[in-house]
Write a structure and sequence with these properties.
Chain lengths: 317, 533, 293
């Protein structure tokens, strides 16, 4: 177990390091350097030169990179174009996206797994068809359009929910949930569709397995047969799927936060790119990549705990 | 009369006088305010963009100025008629006959928001910072200042190298914001905790989310301040900004999008004040910017429009400014052909009477296209933004030009990238605007003077330079207006820029709030507002 | 003279299998429906100039936001353009992006995946790390960044989508190759001294073709939605070329006044991607030896 973890952590570290290089170089490939971004309406050549010097853009690339990384490790991600600390901005805005992601995964898992279990148990019947159709729809619908439709119906027409915006949980817990409900549904739909299919298929496989047939032959109540295996399978499935869908979840969070105007981490990424805010963008993408790798590592650990066979053989390169 | 009777008479007279005075005061007060304002509460304002660094030395956003309204007072300010009036100064400056010396008397007994005293030394330190700080954006706004004297604590004397009429107007904007020497000396980044003189002081900020300011205990006019705090929320999406106003999440909405204005005007819980701004929006044509901004001398670029004056006139004549206003902006903006807005006191003497056709003249345009001798003229229009409204504008222009035989391709470009391209000269035409300055020099010089720092067009006309430099140095308003009138005619004929309209901004204010002022510069002034009781 | 003889007795194993697959596919009404609708969209994209009632950029400033009528079956938008025509013309951007992005991903990812799975060892380790790094960046961020560097256009959006889809496809191709190289006929070919290229082209690639086809039918709808997202954010198609994503972005300002401007383009995206998904599901079931029907 230790060796397995060490190998995985080592690989993760390499990936984070490589990602940081890609981020660093990629950001510099963007047209319009920070001097222009700070430019606004007045573009004095002296101003441009001073800004370049302040950002250290007149030094060679490797020097800039080392300086950036050495600061980043200490938690100092520099100042953005508004002279505000990037680390502070990220730390303040990440929890909002984490809340959105948590609610989406919760909703998506509940709906998806339940539907998948029901569909597998009632295979071929009405419930199965309904659930399968629902999954198909969930996969095909562009979820930003779903968001717009929900805004039209629930906010503009019925006035049941707010159209956009965010209120912090501490300030107003009910308001917070009201603002997060539609975004969570929108973001969780894709996940629930994938989960439903996966759960159904893995349930079907295991329900036909020998040991299940034996259990049934022994006279164990169907509920326990299904329940025990549903639980086991669904945990493994949910973990795997979440790991695979993580990228999609982050992308989805970006556009969901954009439509519902939620000041979270996803929206921050778009803002950073649109404003050509180098420092902010570097910090944001680095944190996103590192976060992704860490979560994947956690998923691997959880998966290996649930599925001992993986630990022993250590699948993967 | 006996002593007691006399005393009674005196008291009676006293009572009558006091009663009359009170009645007069009550009447005046009642006429002035529609409702009595109670003290306390937090006002939430939804801003359309995010302010940049809260340091006047390097700040350049329009919305940043709105935040500064509350926390950083200036030597001078504008009144509702856009005239310059004293704020931290005690009076308008005394100007020497040769216009090279400005003597400014300061108000006394004023404190910065950290309790330190406001005096001429602080003014000198701030202005010096604006002139010398590396990367200072204020430098070009007050560059003619060559030295500053402080004969006593309440007097500042500015010595100029050349006459510079726009100076006082600049001191009524960011260049006149005075920073606390103690805050500057503390060594941190000023923008993270800005301290000036102001009715409110900075409390906290989360990038992309909000800025909070709270009532200042050190302000000299504390009694006029009613609110406990003001929260500026960054709400860049116009539809959700309007939704927030209607839901009561914010009480003031910055710049309502044109499609929401009719809806809000029908909403009985809000008022919709409008500000006819002094800015403009138009199209910059690349005539001579081949190698980049200020890489002189400029030489004609190889595009259809740059080569042919006829084609430029045709391009202008094909545009129907009234229809553009109707289709793109719901008819809410002010179509025009010049950079000075009708609301500016300079408009009448400089622009009124000059030729400006707000409708398209397609037959003239078509004949000019033919006369230009260019077959299949093509123009690329770079848009300074990727939002839907700008996209609409681009498509309407495209459609109108197609009707007269000019093919327009549209390139929606992210704003800062578009500025970069404009400076580098890698554009054909550029749809962009300017928020506007009170002094006409601020709306013209930088863009069309050969040495102008905003001259992306690469336009160079020696006669125009002579006229504009003269206008800067002129001693009388009459001389200036005459010169600017000539300048307008040159620009209108040669068309380095084609002006389309002056933005009219609409704001939303909840009826629960009273005292929010909005003038022609488009800034929201909430500092003395409060909730109606 | 030889002509194709399709009697079962002389059909090659591959042709016979194809026939079986086709038959199994035809038995699934949903899959057939998906195939039909997907074809309809592709045809709409190709035949747009002939079947759309109006041109894609035709404005009518006197009929802004007009409700559905005889002249405009789905009404007009904020510049007076016919919504139905723009939806038909918009299918071009979606189909082009969907198909081209998938093709690009396949052309890039499959060779890399095969190389990694076939040669294993150091080559594979490097490829795996690179794939991990690529996967660490959320697709949307990469797409937005690429569009920002290269400039917004349909081509660049397609490239960004293709690159975004590549890493996952590399893994799949690699996995398939790893499994296939253990097959008997591959080992036999190696023993016989066949060159690597020959083995890959004749034995590995054809046998993963059904997996790849199914993957394609999953990637195409994802790319269609991806193009809509990028255009929605202003990073894809440029005006006056219509795109369903751009139409949705424009519709946001009119959600209360004219919600139909948001409803119709969205339905188009939905049905287009749904049809490819149904097609893909049907193909997967038909190709899968384990399913009974």
């Amino acid at each position: 177990m230790g060796g397995f973890l060490l190998r995985k952590a080592g690989a993760a570290l390499i990936v984070v390091f490589l990602s940081s290089v890609v981020v660093f170089v990629g950001v510099r490939a963007l047209p319009g350097g920070p001097a222009q971004a700070l430019g606004g309406e007045n573009r004095d050549p002296d101003v441009v030169k001073a800004i370049n010097h302040e950002y250290g853009l007149d030094k060679p690339l490797p020097v800039q990179y080392v300086k950036w990384v050495s600061h980043a490790i200490r938690g100092d991600l520099g100042l953005d174009a508004r002279q505000l600390p990037v680390a502070h901005t990220i730390v303040t805005r990440i929890p909002i996206t984490l809340e959105l992601a948590f609610l989406s995964v919760l909703l998506g898992s509940l709906i998806g797994v339940t539907a998948g279990v029901i569909a597998s148990v009632r295979r071929g019947r009405a419930e199965d068809h309904a659930a399968t159709t629902f999954a198909l729809v969930g996969l095909s619908v562009p979820h930003f359009w779903l968001g717009l439709m929900m805004i039209i119906l629930f906010a503009v027409d019925l006035h049941w929910l707010p159209a956009s915006g965010y209120v912090s949980f501490r300030q107003d817990p009910l308001g917070n949930l009201e603002h997060m409900l539609m975004p969570a549904i929108v973001l969780g739909t894709g996940l629930s569709a994938v989960l439903m299919r996966q759960t159904r298929s893995s349930m079907l496989t295991s329900l036909n397995a020998d040991y299940v047939r034996t259990a049934r032959a022994k006279g164990l109540p169907e509920r326990i047969v299904v329940g025990k295996h549903a639980l086991r399978n669904s945990l493994i499935t949910v973990t795997t799927v979440i790991g695979l869908q993580l990228g999609a979840l982050i992308s989805g969070a970006v556009i969901t936060e954009q439509i519902f105007v939620i000041p979270g981490f996803g929206r921050l990424t778009l803002e950073a790119i649109n404003e050509r805010d180098y420092t902010l963008l570097q910090g944001v993408v680095l944190v996103a990549a590192a976060g992704y790798v860490i979560v994947n590592l956690l998923v691997d650990v959880v998966y290996s705990l649930l599925n001992p066979r993986i630990r022993v053989t250590g699948s993967g390169p | 009369m006996t002593g007691s009777l006399r005393r009674l008479a005196l008291i009676a007279i006293g009572v009558v006088v006091v009663g009359a005075l009170s009645a007069a005061v009550a009447v005046a007060h009642g006429a002035g305010s529609a409702a009595t304002i109670k003290n306390g509460g937090t006002l939430t304002i939804g801003l359309a963009e995010e302010p940049d660094a809260l340091d006047p030395t390097i700040a350049r956003t329009f919305v940043g100025r709105m935040v500064f309204q509350t926390i950083c007072e200036k030597l001078y300010d504008l009144d509702s008629h856009l005239n310059v009036v004293p704020q931290l100064a005690a009076a308008l400056p005394q100007v020497s006959a040769d216009k090279l010396t400005y003597t400014i008397k300061l108000r006394s007994g004023i404190k910065f928001n950290d309790g330190t005293a406001f005096d001429s030394a602080a003014v000198k330190q701030t202005l010096t910072r604006y002139l010398t700080f590396p990367g200072s954006v204020r430098k070009s706004e007050i560059s003619p200042i060559s030295s500053i004297d402080t004969p006593n604590a309440t007097t500042v004397v500015l010595h100029l190298a050349t006459p510079y009429s726009p100076l006082v107007a600049q001191l009524a904007d960011r260049s006149g914001m005075i920073l606390s020497p103690k805050a500057l000396a503390s060594g941190g980044t000023f923008a993270q905790n800005p301290v000036c003189v102001g009715p409110f002081m900075f409390k906290d900020r989360v990038a992309g989310d909000h800025i909070t300011v709270v009532k200042s205990p050190d302000y000299y006019d504390k009694s006029k301040v009613h609110l406990d705090s003001i929260v500026f929320r960054i709400m860049t999406d116009p539809s959700s900004r309007t939704a927030a106003l209607r839901a009561g999440d914010i009480q003031v909405e910055d710049r309502i999008q044109s499609t929401d204005v009719p809806t809000l005007q029908k909403d009985s819980s809000v008022t919709v004040p409008k500000a006819v701004t002094i800015g403009y929006q138009g199209i910059t044509l690349n005539l001579g910017n081949k190698n980049g901004l200020l890489k002189l001398p400029y030489s004609t670029v190889n595009t259809d429009l740059a080569k042919s004056q006829d084609l430029r006139t045709a391009f202008d004549a094909a545009l129907d400014r009234t229809t553009i206003n109707k289709v793109v902006f719901n008819g809410l903006n002010q179509p025009d052909c010049y950079p000075i807005a009708p609301v500016s006191p300079w408009y009448k003497p400089t622009v009124s009477g000059l030729s400006c056709d707000l409708h398209a003249n397609t037959s003239l345009a078509k004949s000019l296209v033919k006369a230009s001798g260019i077959s299949n003229p093509t123009v690329n229009l770079m848009l300074g933004g990727t939002d839907p409204v700008t996209a609409r504008l681009g498509q309407v222009i495209q459609s109108m030009e197609a009707a007269v035989g000019i093919k327009v391709t549209v390139s929606p470009t992210e704003f800062t990238t578009s500025l970069n391209r404009a400076d580098a000269g890698t554009f054909d035409t550029y749809a962009v605007g300017w928020s506007g300055r009170v002094d006409p020099d601020g709306n013209i010089y930088g863009f069309v003077a050969t040495k102008g720092t905003l001259n992306d067009s690469g336009y160079s006309n020696a006669r125009l330079d002579y006229v504009l430099n003269g206008a800067r140095k002129s001693l009388t308003t009459k001389a200036r207006t005459t010169l600017y009138r000539v300048a307008m005619q040159i620009i209108h004929r040669q068309r380095p820029l084609i002006y389309l309209y002056h933005p009219v901004n609409y704001y939303g204010v909840s009826k629960k709030v009273s005292g929010v002022q909005i003038y022609g510069d488009g800034l929201i002034r909430p500092q003395f507002a409060g909730f109606a009781s | 003279m030889s002509y194709a003889d399709t009697s079962p007795a002389v059909m090659s194993p591959r042709a016979r299998r194809r026939r079986i697959v086709r038959r199994r596919f035809m038995r699934r009404p949903l899959a057939v429906a998906g195939f039909a609708v997907a074809t309809a969209f592709v045809l709409a994209a190709i035949l747009a100039p002939w079947i759309a009632p109006y041109g894609p950029g035709e404005t009518d400033f006197n009929a802004l936001l007009a409700p559905p009528s005889a002249q405009h079956l789905l009404g007009t938008d904020e510049l007076g353009r016919d919504v139905l025509s723009r939806i038909i013309w918009g299918s071009r951007a979606s189909i082009e992006a969907g198909v081209m992005a998938t093709l690009l991903a396949m052309l890039v990812a499959v060779p890399i995946g095969i190389l990694g799975g076939y040669y294993r060892g150091k080559v594979d380790a490097v490829i795996a790390r690179v794939t991990d790094v690529l996967l660490a960046f959320p697709f949307l961020i990469v797409a937005v960044g690429l569009a920002a560097i290269l400039g917004p256009s349909l081509t660049n959006a397609t490239i960004a989508l293709g690159i975004g889809a590549a890493p996952a496809l590399i893994r799949i191709a690699r996995g398939e190759t790893l499994a296939l190289r253990e097959e008997d006929y591959v080992r036999a070919a190696v023993a016989n001294g066949a060159s690597d290229g020959r083995i890959i082209l004749r034995h590995v690639l054809p046998n993963m073709s059904s997996t790849l086809i199914v993957q394609a039918t999953v990637l195409i709808p994802a790319a269609i939605i991806g193009e809509a997202v990028l255009s929605f954010l202003g990073l894809g198609v440029q005006p006056p070329t219509p795109s369903w994503g751009v139409m949705l972005a424009d519709a946001q300002s009119y959600l209360s006044e004219a919600p139909r401007l948001a409803i119709f383009p969205g339905l188009a995206i939905f049905f287009c991607s749904l049809s490819f998904n149904l097609l893909g599901d049907g193909l997967r079931d038909a190709l899968d030896p384990r399913t009974r029907r």
